[in-house]
Amino acid sequence: MIRVITAISAALIWTALSVLPASAADKVVLMLNWYVYGEHAPFYYGKAKGIYAAEGIDLEIQEGRGSAATTQAVAAKTANFGYVDVPTMMRAAVKGAPIVATGVLLQTSPMSAMGFVEKNIKKPEDIKGKTVAITPADSMTQIWPLFLKKTGLKESDFQTVAGDGQTKLNAVINGQADLLLGYVMDQSMKIKDATGKDVNAIKFADYGINMVCSGVVANTDFVKANADLVKRFMSATTKAVEAAEKDPKGAAQSILDANPKGGKIETLTKGFELTIPLYRTAETKNKRPFQVTDQNMTDTVNLMVEYGGLDAKAKDNPKAFYTNEYLPQGGS
Fold first, then answer.
1. Where is the signal peptide (predicted)?
2. What sign does the CA torsion over 146, 150, 156, 160 have?
């Protein structure tokens, strides 16, 4: 009788345990740097493929309105994580904003000067006699003088027209400018979408200007209080990037599955394919995504202080702006 009662009790306990709800996933808000484009594919792919869910994360992806605005939202804890231009985040952090990069994804700069293939602008000297569209005070325009110095160009070698981001695009599209300063995987695809024409890009990184770009950032207090969640989020995001690298078209399609008005599959795919080579430098080619080197970050801080308007005190402690502590380790 005792054995029967014990068996029945065990069965009842097992039944009760089997119908208990699974522990709820952690709701996480990721705010992007801008309206969705190809660079953002891994986040959507990771969500669609259940990579975040497998880490116990219920991910909500929100479009942004610029890296500065997203940085402010994360600093204010209205978003858990942000995907932003890391040098932009540095400007806020050095002024006291409680924010840190928990992973730097784009470790090679996407900055470039670009124009239609038909313009035959392939190298710096081809810029001579042309008209360049810029957006005053943006990150590329601040680094532009260094590009000129590295390539032996002078501002008198070309004409300049200025305007906001859309005006800059329109200037090239409408023939008012021969080229613009933009990101190789972003503005080039917008021009392609609008005109159907291919674009040549002269990348700053090819001329010795290497600084980091986009990365994941979080509020420093949030990171301290939620170390396990941050590790799980960065683990999922690392896996999402690695999976997306192997399936660019599928990754791009995941954007459209979530947002049918998010672009065209061809340019979303091409934009993402142009992003992948920016993930690593020669020093990190055998490492998993996000594992930025101290030297890369130090070089970025130095360039930003000299050319990008970053407060000189940033050079005192470049490591204050980022951490690799929450990343999964090992080689790629």
1. 1-24
2. negative
